[in-house]
Design brief:
Layout lengths: L12 E2 L4 E2 L4 E2 L4 E2 L4 E2 L4 E2 L4 E2 L4 E2 L4 E2 L4 E2 L4 E2 L3 E3 L4 E2 L4 E2 L18 E3 L4 E2 L4 E2 L10 E2 L4 E2 L7 E4 L4 E5 L7 E6 L3 E6 L5 E5 H10 L1
Parallel strand pairs: 1-4, 2-5, 3-6, 4-7, 5-8, 6-9, 7-10, 8-11, 9-12, 10-13, 11-14, 12-15, 13-16, 14-17, 16-18, 17-19, 18-20
Antiparallel strand pairs: 20-21, 22-23, 23-24
Length: 206
C-alpha cells in the first residue's frame, strides 16, 4: 500500500491565515489549515494534519502521521503519539479546578494519547487522563479516567464496553492468568495481553 500523499519530505504547508510561532517545530509534510494557532515550543511530527481552527498550546508534543480535525483544542501538558486520529471539536483540558484568578503550574507531560488511538468527535478529556495505544473513545464521550490500550469507551462518564484490535474488530477472550488476560482477534488473529486489573474493570463497566 502506498503512503498517503501528505507523508513526504516536503516543507510544511501552512495556510496564510494560520498563526504558527517561529519557535514551534514542524516536521516534513505537515499540513496546517486555515485559522490554526500553534504556540511556541510545540512539536509536530512529519506527515501530520491540523484541520481548520485547531489550537495547539505551548510545548505540546504531537507525533508523526497524526490527523487532528477541525476545532480541536490541545492544551499544554498533552503528548500525542504517532498515527492518532482526533475527531472534530475534541477538547483536552489541563486543569481540574479552573479559576480565572490563577493558572495551574504545568511541568512535563500530564496526559498521553497512545499510538494509533482514535478519539471521536466532540469528546472532552479531563486533566491528568491518558488514552492507551489503539484505544477508541466514542463520539461525545467525557473521559474522566485513563483508558487502557485497546479499550473502547463511550458515554458520560466514559465506560469500557469491549477491547478492540488494531483493525477495530472486537477482541475475544482466549485465556487468563492471575495477572493478565489473553485476547484474540478473529479477523486478523492478533493476540493482545491485557492487565488483569483492566480486564476486571471492563467486566464491571460493560
Amino acid at each position: 500500500m502506498g503512503k498517503r500523499k501528505f507523508e513526504n519530505k516536503a516543507k510544511p504547508l501552512i495556510a496564510p491565515s494560520a498563526v504558527v510561532s517561529p519557535r514551534a517545530r514542524l516536521g516534513p509534510g505537515v499540513v496546517v489549515w486555515n485559522y490554526v494557532q500553534v504556540r511556541e515550543d510545540a512539536m509536530i511530527g512529519g506527515g501530520s494534519i491540523l484541520g481548520n481552527g485547531v489550537y495547539v498550546d505551548k510545548s505540546v508534543r504531537i507525533g508523526k502521521r497524526v490527523v487532528i480535525q477541525n476545532k480541536v483544542s490541545v492544551y499544554r501538558g498533552v503528548e500525542i503519539e504517532d498515527e492518532v486520529f482526533i475527531g472534530p471539536h475534541v477538547c483536552f483540558t489541563n486543569d481540574l479546578w479552573p479559576d480565572a484568578r490563577t493558572i495551574r503550574p504545568i511541568h512535563g507531560v500530564l496526559a498521553r494519547i497512545g499510538k494509533g488511538a482514535v478519539i471521536g468527535g466532540n469528546v472532552t478529556i479531563l486533566p491528568d487522563v491518558s488514552v492507551g495505544a489503539y484505544a477508541l473513545v466514542g463520539a461525545g464521550s467525557v473521559v474522566t479516567q485513563s483508558v487502557p490500550s485497546h479499550a473502547l469507551v463511550v458515554g458520560n462518564p466514559a465506560r469500557m464496553k469491549r477491547f478492540i484490535c488494531r483493525c477495530k474488530k472486537t477482541l475475544h477472550f482466549q485465556a487468563e492468568t492471575a495477572r493478565a488476560v489473553k485476547l484474540r482477534c478473529r479477523n486478523c488473529r492478533l493476540i493482545v495481553r491485557v492487565a488483569r486489573e483492566h480486564y476486571d474493570r471492563f467486566l464491571r463497566e460493560r
